[in-house]
Amino acid sequence: MTTRRALGLGITILTLSACSGAPAESTRARAPEWTPRDQEKGHVAKSPLRPLIVEWPSPDRAALEAQSKAGVVAVRFLGREMEVLRQCHGKGAYGYVAVTPKQDVVSLTSRDELYATLPVHAVELEAKLKSSGRLTADMFIVGSWDAPEGSATRATLSGDCARATHVITGITAGAFAFTSGGAKDTSGGIGVFGVGAGAARESTEEVLSKDGDRDACKRATGADSRPPDGCSAYLRVELAPVDRGDEPLPGTPAAGQRVSVVISQPTQPRATGTALGNTAIVLGSTGLAVGLSAGMTAWIMGASLKKDCPDGVCPNEKESSLKSYRTVAKVATYGFVGGAILLGGGIILNATAKDPEPRTAVRLGPAGLSMDGSF
User: Fold this and answer.
1) Whole-number average pLDDT of the chain
2) Which residues are paired to 158 by β-bridges?
3) Which of 87, 259, 296, 363 is the most buried (most CB within 10 A)?
4) Could you read off the pLDDT of 257-295 as tens digits, one per residue?
5) Which residues pair with 238 in a beta bridge?
6) pLDDT digit string, tens, across residues 166-215
7) How far is it, in rounded angstroms, from Cα 35 to Cα 190?
8) How many CB atoms are located within 10 Å of the residue 127 CB?
9) Inter-axis angle of helices 268-308 and 319-352, to 10 degrees?
10) What proportions of the chain, in percent to the nearest 5, are helix, strand and coil?
11) What span, in angstroms and rounded, lies between the C-alpha atoms of 182 and 137?
C-alpha cells in the first residue's frame, strides 16, 4: 500500500469515527438564551453576603420587614440557612437612600448559579430549576435601606444575641417577580413585568412569587425620602459579620469574668452522711421520748406495787400488775438506751461528714482559659 493511499484511508477512518460518535457541542440542543431588550442582565453574586431574598415565602419577608422597622436586624447566617433573631435588636434605624430607578433581571440556569444567588432556599428550588430550565428574578429597584455605620458590633446589640453571626446592613427596595421557565423563542425579550414582549411570542413562565407594583415604582425619583407606596418590597439583603471585638454579646461572660464551670464537685459523701445522721437523730429523739414516757409510767406503777407488795412479795391478785410493771420498765430501759445510742450516732455522723472538695472555676481572659482557685 502506498503512503498516499494509507494517508487517505486514515483520514477516512477518522472522519467516519467523528460522524458516528456523540454530536458536536455546537449541534446539541440548548435552552434558548434570553436577552431581554431595555433591561440589565444580572450575573451571579460573587459575594455570599449579598443574597437575594425574592424566593422567601411572603410571611418570612413580612417578618423581616417588621423586624427592620424596630431597629437594625441581627441574623444567624450559616451560608444556606438564615434565621432572623426576633429577640435581638441593633441600635439605630435604617435610613433610606433613593437611586435612579432601574430594572434588573437575574437569570439562573445552573445549579451553581442557584446556590450562589439564592442560598437560603436553593435546596427546595433545585427540582424546579431542573424541570423548567430557568429561574428568573425580574426586579425593579428604586433604593435601599442602609444601617448606621458601625452597626455590626457586639456593643450595638441588645437582647438575646448569643446566636447572632451577622447584621443586615443594607436592604434593596422595589418590586419583583420571581418565575420559572421562560419564553419559547429568542426573537425578543419578555418578562413578567411585560418589558420587551413580542406580539408573536408565547410564554411558559410560572410565577413563583411576586411583590410590589411596577407601575408604582415608575413614580420613584432619586430625591425620594422613602419608596413610593406599592414599591417597597425587599429584594436583596447585605450582611456584615458581627465584629466580636473585646466586648461580649449580652448574656455572655466578659474577659476576666469568672464562669461557673464545675470541673470537680464530689458532693455525694456529705449528702449521704448528713441524711443518715439526721435520720438517726430523729429516731434517737423518738426513742428517748418513749423511754421517758414509759419510765414515768413504770415509776407510778412501782410506787403503787410497793404499797401492795410489802417485802417484795405480792399477793396472787397483783401478779398481772407486776407483769405489766416489768414490761413497761423494759420499754423505758430500751427507749432510753436505744434513743441515746441513735442520737449520739446521728450527731457524730453529721459532725464527721465530708465537705465537698473545692470546685475549680474557669476564668475567661484575653490570653484564653485559665484555672482559678476554689469558690
Assistant:
1) 75
2) 89
3) 363
4) 544 444 444 444 555 667 887 888 888 888 888 888 888
5) 170
6) 999 999 999 999 999 875 444 444 455 655 444 444 457 899 999 999 99
7) 9
8) 9
9) 160
10) 35, 25, 40
11) 12
79: left (phi over 0), alpha (psi -120 to 50) or beta: left
> What would the grid cell of residue 133 be?
430550565
CB 138 within 8 A of CB 194: no
Q: Could you give the CA distance from residue 183 to residue 134 in angstroms, rounded to a whole number?
A: 10
Question: Which residue carries 430607578 as its cell?
Answer: 101
Tell me which residue of 86, 101, 106 sits closest to 144, measured CA to CA. 101
Q: How far apart are CA 295 and CA 297, in angstroms?
A: 5
Half-sphere exposure of 268 (CA within 13 A, CB side): 2
CB under 8 Å, gap of 24 or more: what pairs does 45-48 form? 45/116, 45/117, 46/116, 48/79, 48/116, 48/119
Backbone angles phi, psi at 25, to 5 degrees: -55, -35
One-letter amino acid at 283 equals: L
Query: What is the Cα–Cα distance from 240 to 90, expressed in whole angstroms?
Result: 13
Q: Which residues contact 329 (CB under 8 A, 6 or more apart)?
A: 294, 295, 298, 302
120-175: pLDDT as tens digits: 888 889 999 999 999 999 999 999 999 998 888 888 899 999 999 999 999 999 99
Q: How many Å apart are CA 73 and CA 85, to the nearest integer? A: 8
The pTM score is 0.51
Question: Which residue(s) pair with 271 in the sheet?
Answer: none
